[in-house]
Amino acid sequence: MGVRRSALRAASRVLPERMQDSLLPGFCGDLKRELGETATDQFLQALLLGMDAAFALSGEYRKNIEGFRAVFVFRTRNDDVGATAVFQDGDMRVEFEPRDSFDTRLTFKDAEGLRASLLAGDEDLLNTMLTNPVEAEGNLSNLYRFGFLAKELTLRLGVG
User: Fold this and answer.
1) Which CATH class is domain 3-157?
2) What does each of the 160 residues of the chain score in pLDDT, given as a tens digit?
3) pTM for this entry
4) Which residue ranges make up each domain of the chain?
5) Which of 65-82 are b and which e, b meaning 16 or more Cβ less than 10 Å from the residue's Cβ?
């Protein structure tokens, strides 16, 4: 665990939840910019790093992944952008290369397609997948879980 994550975990043990939520936007500035503007190729990295910071800092947000085990692989169709998110033991780890093995893999046309699919509501997720900006493989229930986590983070940041 990195120094920043260790410090955020320590802060989450002593600070009240309201204080944790007020500090969170400071650790998610890149994500807030990506959500407020047209998504760029940096959206995926900003989202995953924002989620990582939120899980480290916020005990309430972290409760959403207790007992959750999954490996998500994200990549563009042309392989310009790719990453892996590993959920295990109430923690999330980010790897900046897509793994070959996965529970759920999302292949997206571009950053805007990824953002639209992940931040869509449950009803809109199927429609978004049908319009083809995203191809999903593996356990699709994980996709709904990840979408919930992403949407929950946007709400915590006040941009959802």
Assistant:
1) alpha beta
2) 588 888 998 999 999 989 998 999 998 988 888 877 766 778 888 999 999 999 999 999 999 999 999 999 999 888 878 899 999 989 999 999 999 999 999 998 877 777 777 766 555 555 655 665 678 899 989 988 998 999 899 999 988 6
3) 0.85
4) 3-157
5) beebebbbbbbbeeeebb
